[in-house]
Write a structure and sequence with these properties.
Length: 144
Amino acid sequence: MYRNKPSYAVVVFQIRERTVHYFVYVCNSRSRSITLGVLYGYKALLQIVALVFAVSIRKVRIKGLNDAIYIIAAIYVTSIVTTVIIVSTYTLVELVNVYAVMFSLCLFIGTTVTLILVFIPPVSSVAIKIQYLVCMYSSNLEHS
């Protein structure tokens, strides 16, 4: 079994005239690197498959089903978020709290932007069509 000596970070701060020593022990092993490589490889494979599907549905002639632009934009956003998470996984090993905040923010931003890109344009186009139909119906009632 391959193991490095555990590395640790010491954070010292004052709380009400008391000194607090905060230790973070990080154990490194080869299996951690392999596991993270497999996880990030799987995420990359999913991104590539989604990109291929988005490019292939560009040719759909039905306007309501042609969301390729929004899906490609969502893939772009999730690729950036995944890259930030990967970089922070390796650079913020000893800063556990900062890593947790970065991870949470990346998930929140990625999910929110993806939902906005995928659902807001179709919903807004339906709302505009409904508003147009209501205006047309009300103008027909006034003329009759």
